[in-house]
DNA sequence: TCTTATTAGGACAAAGTAATCCTAAAAGAG
DNA sequence: CTCTTTTAGGATTACTTTGTCCTAATAAGA
């Protein structure tokens, strides 16, 4: 449903949302270690997100990545959109081009609610709100 | 959620369930044309399914693929299992190794029930029952 | 100003998946 | 029995995704 890359990206962004701030930037390497990921690869993902201004960055010693308060208000779906491009989430599970309620594929009605709910969740909740639940121990990022 | 290969396979199997019988075998090429797929690739998938006895085949002129009535009674999930191997369906959407109700990932509770429903649907309904709905025009295989 | 630590970015390598090709084996038809 | 049509299976190719490496740019601190 999501590519590995965008799973990583979501994890990294939530990690930043929980741990970083403009005065407490975090190096790619530290995030990579935390979420157990090859660090040059994560760096690439962060660069992509940085180009789209969803994460902020600063070079040099004491440099690193962080999320501005504004960025934290954006929906988590933005991250997925940037990494996976378009709507991988909207595609028919059986690959039918024009699957719809009018011409449903054989599993349409059992899958459609799943996809819709998931997409809505990512669309309507901000990065910050997901991060809150991690902070409160309601949800987890690793293990 | 499913690989392209297993999407093709599901489509092909349902096509066979709808159109074939032991006395009306269907050539790989015909199925490939129907579901718009490179025919040598589909042939490979059908061979794999045939090795696992979910589709039956016969060589030579008038040869082709078909489903026995017994095969039609097997759950559609079998097809997915054979092609995608293990449980791609059970993995955490965010890629967490040990995502569970005790240590839920940030989207666990919104996605988990729906994944379960989907899996159950594939597990509890036979190929034949999916095929029935296609025959009755309730669901569709192409377009 | 020089050194060092970090991100930026492009080129490249590896792995996995998707797709092709070729030859063999089987089975029906003449 | 031979020819043709079809599946079977292995080897190979192509493509996409994932991951690495190297150099440049930038910023902080000595």
UniProtKB/TrEMBL annotation, chains A, B:
Gene3D superfamilies: Winged helix-like DNA-binding domain superfamily/Winged helix DNA-binding domain
Entry GO CC: cytosol
Position of the signal peptide: none
Pfam families membership: Rrf2
Domain of life (superkingdom): Bacteria
InterPro entries: Tscrpt_reg_Rrf2, WH-like_DNA-bd_sf, WH_DNA-bd_sf
SUPFAM superfamilies, alphabetized: Winged helix' DNA-binding domain
GO molecular function terms listed in the Swiss-Prot or TrEMBL record: DNA-binding transcription factor activity
NCBIfam families reported for this sequence: rrf2_super (TIGR00738)
PANTHER family linked to this entry: HTH-TYPE TRANSCRIPTIONAL REGULATOR YWGB-RELATED (PTHR33221:SF15), WINGED HELIX-TURN-HELIX TRANSCRIPTIONAL REGULATOR, RRF2 FAMILY (PTHR33221)
The protein's name in its UniProt record: Transcriptional regulator, BadM/Rrf2 family
Originating species: Salinimicrobium sediminis
């Amino acid at each position: 449903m999501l590519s590995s890359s965008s799973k990583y990206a979501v994890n990294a962004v939530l990690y930043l949302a929980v741990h970083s701030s403009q005065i407490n930037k975090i190096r790619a390497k530290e995030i990579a270690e935390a979420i157990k990921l090859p660090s040059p690869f994560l760096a690439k993902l962060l660069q992509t997100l940085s180009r789209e201004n969803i994460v902020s960055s600063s070079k040099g010693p004491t440099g690193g990545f962080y999320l501005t308060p504004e960025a934290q208000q954006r929906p988590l779906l933005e991250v997925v959109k940037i990494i996976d491009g378009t709507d991988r989430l909207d595609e028919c599970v059986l690959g039918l081009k024009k699957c719809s309620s009018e011409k449903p594929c054989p599993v349409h009605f059992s899958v459609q609610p799943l996809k819709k709910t998931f997409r809505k969740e990512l669309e309507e909740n901000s990065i910050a709100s997901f991060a809150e639940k991690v902070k409160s121990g309601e949800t987890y990022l690793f293990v």
